Amino acid sequence: MFGKKDDKAVAIIPARLGSTRFPRKALADDTGKPMVVHVCEQAAKAESVGRVVVATDAEEIKSAVEAHGFEAVMTDPAHTNGTSRLAEAAKVLKLKAQHIVVNVQGDEPEIEPMIIDGAIAAACLEKQVSWCPELGPLGAAVGTVACPIDDLEEAKNPNIVKVVIGLIESDQAVAQAIYFSRAPIPHDRDTTGTARYFRHVGIYAYSVSALIAYQSLEESPLERIECLEQLRWLENGYPIAVAIRESTHTGIDTPVQYQAFVERYQAKKSS
Questions:
Q1: What gap in Å lies between CA 18 and CA 3, rounded to an integer?
Q2: Helices (H), 18-58
Q3: Is 69 left (phi over 0), alpha (psi -120 to 50) or beta?
Q4: Considering the chain, what is the average pLDDT of its residues?
Q5: How confident is the model at residue 127, as a pLDDT?
Q6: Which residue of 26, 103, 234, 252 has the lowest C-beta tally within 10 Å?
Q7: 3-state DSSP call for residue 264?
Q8: Which residue has the higher pLDDT, 161 or 7?
Q9: Is the pLDDT of residue 214 over 60?
Q10: 100-158 pLDDT, tens digit each
Q11: Backbone φ, ψ for residue 38 (5° rounding)
Q12: According to the model, what pLDDT value does residue 170 have?
């Protein structure tokens, strides 16, 4: 499916200057290059990605990205989430309905390229869903990624989003999402010790048509309760496919986390 560059997915990276805990983090450059550029470089390594674009509301970010050889487009500063900004970027880029776009977070400079490929692979399973025309030839409205959780304390942490999945298709290691929550799900009522927990890795891949369809959906009740926008898809009957992958990367929300990344980057560079 992804033989030619034009057949590959477009990685769109939403990036803005405003951040409560870490203002201007997209442009933090203690490594010698802005953090958002590190994200671009990781996205470009993904085998399923043929184009990398930053969607921003700041000319400073656009200039910094372009100075490092990557593409950037300006979007409305009023967007309330990255998905909405992604939809505008797809329109600005004149992407066709069947194009696959992958939403790569702008504060994850260590994201593994295989995670990006996993999300795209999940979105591109060849399964017809006749009742949902927005999906076209895709079997899911959204493709995303989860990784196994081995530490029960991590499963209990409300800052870590968990996903319950259906039976895994062994040949593709992809399952359907049943529910996302900040709670430790599933609940092991009888303390059997057999419960499997999965951490949701916050990356999404979708067709442009599915992305546009999402824009017409109102915020859903479960989305408001859990503060998880992916629940809007499930509450409206849109399936989400989940690729199971090992992942160690984390997003950067604070200056302390950023400095830890800088130290890891410098250690790798000097080794």
A1: 38
A2: 35-45
A3: left
A4: 88
A5: 45
A6: 234
A7: helix
A8: 161
A9: yes
A10: 999 999 999 999 999 999 999 998 865 434 334 444 444 568 999 999 999 999 999 99
A11: -60, -40
A12: 57
Q: Which residues pair with 11 in a beta bridge?
A: 52, 102
In 3D space, the residue among 144, 128, 147, 148 whose CA is nearest the CA of residue 136 turns out to be 128
Q: Which domains does the chain have, with CATH numbers?
A: 1-111+251-265 (3.90.550.10), 113-248 (3.90.550.10)
End-to-end C-alpha distance for the chain, whole angstroms: 37
**Is the CB of residue 111 less than 8 Å from the CB of residue 249?**
yes
C-alpha to C-alpha distance for 167 and 171, rounded to whole angstroms: 12
Cα–Cα dist 238/17, whole Å: 32
Give burial (CB, 10 Å; 0-12/13-18/19+) of 72: buried
Are the C-beta atoms of 43 and 52 separated by less than 8 Å? yes
Helix 255-270 / helix 35-45 crossing angle, nearest 10 deg? 60
Bigger pLDDT: 41 or 137? 41
Q: Which residue has the tokens 């967007």?
A: 79
208: its two tokens: 């442009």
DSSP reduced 3-state for 48: coil
- Confidence at residue 249, expressed as pLDDT on a 0 to 100 scale: 86
Q: At 241, which amino acid appears? A: A
48-96 pLDDT per residue, tens: 999 999 999 999 999 999 999 999 999 988 887 778 889 899 999 999 9
Please tell me the distance from the alpha carbon of residue 134 to that of residue 238, in angstroms, as a whole number.
10
